[in-house]
């Protein structure tokens, strides 16, 4: 398989590529908008006596927004500048987190908190769109793997450790208002990383809405017509690299005689560090080999991790080491998949294209989560892990066979109708 490169020049020739840490900082608020409701509000809601269903309703709002964000991604691609969208979205996310911090948690406020969680999550999608567009423009084919690794590291750290930081502030600050301001300050401070980044040109600046939507469709079609785009699409929908078992690690902790503190540490800061390390490793791997195969290799590491968890001693130490290794492998998968998608989307309509692949990957991952739950109920934890590993092996075999037979246009070849410009 030939190596892939971006169909459009990512930046001005001779321009210095920013350190990939920039993408972790810029993407952190997106992860925090998910992690804060799930970790901080989840814990405080349980302590306040809220029913689990009420807590799930609040947390579920973040997933609702992210499952459909590709639908409104063209708004960011074709209207204001990426930096403008980022600043506006960061301000809205900060305001939403402030409101969620100072509003008391009780049954009467769950509806309001759910609405705030949804609003903050929708605003955070524009942080994602802006960061993705800037990253596609300010990276080169040789640095996109590392960029994708740090990008996902910021997201995952925000969802895990970021949520824990929010909870710590609420518990230790002199008042909820002080905690709220600190959380807002963290979000707004991330915008400082925009300094020095080159703004990508805005396409179809004076075109109608219809013309812009048509152009977004043509850009998507150009990727899906390409052989490398079709290979990426295949990898997005295959049931590998889903991390399905990780969502059930808290539930199986007692089988390993792991205490609540161990489960919390593994699922919180420890898991955050492990997945960030995996993201960085996966990003470097994606820069050193052909990107579809780097993703497949990362998924294979995840399958090995399934076996490691299944064979690990049923002790607290065995639980911690094996599940952290699994979490590390998931970071590799996330980073290598991001590097793969970055390599094929180019500059134009970057957020629209990247979020279509992300959405498909997420939807098919949810299906594997249901399979993992069914397998656990039928064959216990070991059977669940073997099921995930066997399904993954079959999916990798399908990829190895199908990838050699997929045909398509060269990457970046124009669609038959041509691309309009205004």
C-alpha end-to-end distance:
37 Å
Within CATH, the superfamily of the largest domain carries the name MFS general substrate transporter like domains
Individual helix count: 15
| Rough outline | globular
CATH class of the largest domain: Mainly Alpha
Q: SSE string, helix = H, strand = E?
A: HHHHHHHHHHHHHHH
Describe how the helices and strands are arranged.
Elements lengths: L20 H27 L4 H16 L5 H6 L3 H21 L7 H28 L6 H29 L3 H14 L19 H17 L1 H11 L11 H4 L7 H8 L1 H20 L2 H21 L4 H30 L4 H53 L20
Helix pairs in contact: 1-2, 1-4, 1-5, 1-6, 2-5, 4-5, 4-7, 5-15, 6-7, 6-12, 6-14, 9-14, 9-15, 11-12, 12-13, 12-14, 13-14, 13-15, 14-15
Structure description:
The chain is an all-alpha fold. The protein has two domains: 17-200, MFS general substrate transporter like domains (Growth Hormone, Chain: A); 212-407, MFS general substrate transporter like domains (Growth Hormone, Chain: A). The protein has 15 helices and no strands. The radius of gyration is 21 Å and the shape is globular. 50% of the residues are buried. Residues 1-13 and 415-422 have low confidence and may be disordered.
């Amino acid at each position: 398989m030939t190596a892939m490169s971006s169909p459009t020049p990512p930046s001005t020739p001779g321009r210095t590529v920013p350190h990939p840490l920039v993408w972790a900082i810029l993407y952190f608020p997106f992860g925090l908008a998910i992690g804060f409701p799930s970790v901080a509000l989840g814990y405080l809601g349980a302590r306040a006596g809220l029913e689990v269903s009420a807590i799930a309703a609040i947390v579920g709002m973040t997933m609702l927004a992210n499952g459909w964000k590709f639908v409104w991604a063209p708004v960011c691609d074709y209207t204001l500048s990426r930096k403008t969208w980022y600043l506006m979205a960061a301000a809205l996310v900060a305001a939403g987190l402030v409101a969620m911090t100072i509003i008391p948690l009780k049954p009467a406020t769950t509806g309001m908190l759910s609405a705030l969680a949804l609003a903050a999550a929708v605003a955070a999608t524009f942080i994602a769109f802006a960061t993705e567009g800037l990253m596609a423009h300010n990276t080169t084919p040789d640095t996109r793997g590392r960029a994708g690794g740090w990008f996902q590291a910021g997201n995952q750290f925000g969802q895990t450790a970021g949520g824990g930081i929010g909870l710590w502030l609420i518990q230790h600050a002199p008042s909820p208002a002080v905690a709220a301001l600190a959380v807002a300050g963290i979000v707004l401070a991330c915008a400082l990383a925009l300094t020095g980044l080159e703004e990508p040109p805005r396409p179809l600046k004076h075109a109608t809405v219809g013309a812009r939507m048509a152009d977004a469709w043509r850009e998507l079609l150009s990727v899906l017509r390409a052989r490398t785009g079709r290979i990426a699409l295949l990898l997005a929908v295959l049931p590998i690299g889903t991390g399905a078992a990780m969502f059930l690690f808290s539930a199986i902790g007692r089988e390993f005689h792991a205490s609540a503190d161990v489960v919390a540490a593994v699922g919180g800061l420890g898991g955050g560090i492990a997945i960030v390390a995996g993201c960085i490793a996966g990003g470097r791997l994606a820069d050193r080999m052909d990107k579809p195969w780097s993703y497949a290799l990362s998924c294979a590491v995840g399958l090995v991790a399934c076996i490691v968890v299944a064979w690990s001693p049923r002790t607290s130490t065995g639980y911690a080491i094996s599940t952290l290794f699994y979490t590390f492998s998931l970071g590799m998968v996330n980073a290598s998949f991001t590097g793969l998608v970055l390599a094929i989307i180019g500059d134009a309509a970057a957020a629209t294209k990247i979020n279509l692949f992300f959405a498909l990957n997420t939807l098919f991952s949810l299906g594997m989560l249901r399979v993992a739950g069914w397998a656990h109920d039928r064959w216990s934890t070991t059977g669940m892990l073997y099921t995930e590993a066997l399904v993954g092996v079959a999916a990798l075999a399908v990829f190895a066979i199908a990838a050699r037979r997929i045909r398509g246009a060269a990457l970046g070849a124009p669609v038959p109708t041509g691309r309009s410009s205004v």
